[in-house]
Amino acid sequence: MNVQQFTVIGAGQMGSGIAQVAAQAGMQVKLHDIEDAMVQKGLKGIEKNLTRQVEKGRMKGEERDGILQRIQGTTQLEEAAAKADIVVEAVVESMAVKTELFRRLDEICPPHTILASNTSSLPITEIAAVTKRPEQVIGMHFMNPVPVMKLVEVIRGLATKDEVYLAVEQLARKMEKTPVEVNDFPGFVSNRVLMPMINEAIYTVYEGVAEPEAVDQVMKLGMNHPMGPLQLADFIGLDTCLYIMETLYEGFGDSKYRPCPLLRKYVKAGWLGKKTGRGFYSYEG
Ligand SMILES: CC(=O)CC(=O)SCCNC(=O)CCNC(=O)[C@H](O)C(C)(C)COP(=O)(O)OP(=O)(O)OC[C@H]1O[C@@H](n2cnc3c(N)ncnc32)[C@H](O)[C@@H]1OP(=O)(O)O
Ligand SMILES: NC(=O)C1=CN([C@@H]2O[C@H](COP(=O)(O)OP(=O)(O)OC[C@H]3O[C@@H](n4cnc5c(N)ncnc54)[C@H](OP(=O)(O)O)[C@@H]3O)[C@@H](O)[C@H]2O)C=CC1
To answer: Which parts of the sequence are marked as the site Important for catalytic activity (predicted)?
Structure first.
C-alpha cells in the first residue's frame, strides 16, 4: 500500500508519538483532537523530541523542519479523514467513544481507507462491527514511548482481510517498527501479560507489603526492568491501566483480573499519573 496521507485521531501521548514516527517515515500526517489545546500540546511534544535529536547531533535542523512541516494539526474530523489512506485511532480507551468515532470515520473516509485502532485491550472485532468495512479494520498497537519502542502488535479482527494485514505489517516496517501478529482476545498479548503484573504491584502497596519506591526497586534491581511497575503505571496513565484491567475482567470473567481498589481510588481522585502530575509518585514542579 502506498500511503500518501496518514491520519491520527487523538493527540495525547500515543497519538502524538504515532504522528511523529509516521512523519519521520516520510508520510503526510494529519493529527486530530477534539481540543485545539491538545493538538498544540501534541505538536509541541513532537517538536521537543525532534529538537533533542538535533541537539544530540543525530538529525539535521532541516530534517527536523521537514518532518514538522509534514504534520498538520486539526480539530475538524472531516478535514483530517476525508483523504486518508490509513487512519490510526488513539483516543481514550473506551468502547463507546471508539465505536462512535469509527462509525463517523466509516462515513467520512474513502472506500479504500484502512481504519486502525491503537487500543490497548478492546476487541477489534467489536469496533469493526459498527462499520460497513469490517474487513478493513485492524489493531495497530504501538508501545509507549512510541519513538523509542520497537514493537507494534498487529491484531486481526474476525473479518480482517489478509491484504489489509499485510499492508499494515509493511507500514509498521516502514515506520521502523517490528510488527508481531496476534489474535483478537482481550488485552491481546502485551497487556494480558503486563497489566496483571502492574495490578499485582498495586495490590502489594494496597496491602501494605511495601512502599511504591520499594516495589519498583525490587523489580528494577531484581528483575532488570527499566522502570518499576508503579512508575510504568504512572507513565502509561492510571486511567488507561484501569480500563485495561476492566476489559480483561469483563472479557474473561475471571476474578484473577479484578482491578485493585487502590487503582480505582486514584483514578476517581484524578490521580492519573505523569499526565496529571500525580499518581503513585508526584511530578509537580
Ligand atoms: C499500555 C500499553 O498498551 C502498551 C504499552 O505501551 S506498555 C509500556 C511499554 N513501555 C515500557 O515498558 C517502557 C519502559 N521504560 C523504558 O524502556 C525506559 O525507561 C525508557 C525508554 C522510557 C527511558 O529510558 P531511560 O534509559 O530510562 O531514560 P533516557 O536515557 O532518558 O531515555 C532513553 C532514550 O529514550 C528517549 N526517550 C525517553 N522518553 C521518551 C519519550 N517520552 N518520547 C521520546 N523519546 C523518549 C530519550 O530521548 C533517550 O534517547 P537517546 O538514547 O536516543 O538519547
Ligand atoms: N498510554 C499508553 O502507554 C498506551 C496507550 N495506548 C492506547 O492508546 C489510546 C490513547 O492513549 P493515550 O495517548 O495514553 O491517552 P491520552 O489521554 O494521552 O490521549 C487521548 C487523547 O484523545 C483525545 N480524545 C478523546 N476522545 C476523542 C475523540 N472522540 N476524538 C478525538 N480525540 C479524542 C483526548 O482529548 P481529551 O483529553 O480532551 O479528552 C486526548 O487528547 C488508548 O486507547 C490507550 O489504551 C496504547 C499503547 C500504550
So the answer is: 141
